[in-house]
């Protein structure tokens, strides 16, 4: 009975450690190509197309998930 209780306590403490653990990683992109020209905001013109009113094309804010 004593060993069973000890095994239970050790198992629960290991599970608690796994649940409370967290990690972070950092990714540094050297280049990101938006081949389809899909913009992150609706106000931006797709790459390669002229603005309908003749204004200069705006800077697209590309995003990814």
Provide a quick synopsis of the model.
Residues 22-65 form the Notch ligand N-terminal domain. This protein has a domain at 32-65.
Protein architecture, described:
The chain has 65 residues and is an all-alpha fold. It has a domain at 32-65. 29% of the residues lie in helices and 0% in strands. It contains 1 helix and no strands. The longest helix has 19 residues, at 2-20. It is rod-shaped. The chain starts with a helix and ends in a 45-residue tail after the last helix. One of its GO terms (biological process) is Notch signaling pathway. InterPro entries: Notch_ligand_N. Residues 1-21 form the signal peptide. Pfam families: MNNL (PF07657). It comes from Nothobranchius furzeri.
Number of strands: 0
| Range of strand content | under 5%
By secondary-structure content and strand pairing, the structural class works out as mainly alpha
Roughly what percent helix?
25-40%
* Helix-strand pattern: H
Give the distance, in angstroms, between the N- and C-terminal Cα atoms: 51 Å
Shape: rod-shaped
Largest sheet: none
Radius of gyration: 26 Å
Report the mean per-residue pLDDT as an integer: 69
Unreliable stretches covering 5 or more consecutive residues: none
**How large is the count of helical segments?**
1
């Amino acid at each position: 009975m004593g060993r069973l209780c000890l095994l239970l306590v050790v198992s629960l403490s290991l599970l608690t450690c796994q649940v409370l653990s967290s990690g972070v990683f950092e990714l540094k992109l050297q280049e990101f190509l938006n081949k389809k020209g899909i913009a992150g905001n609706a106000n931006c013109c797709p790459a390669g197309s002229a603005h309908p009113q003749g204004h200069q094309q705006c800077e697209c804010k590309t995003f990814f998930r």
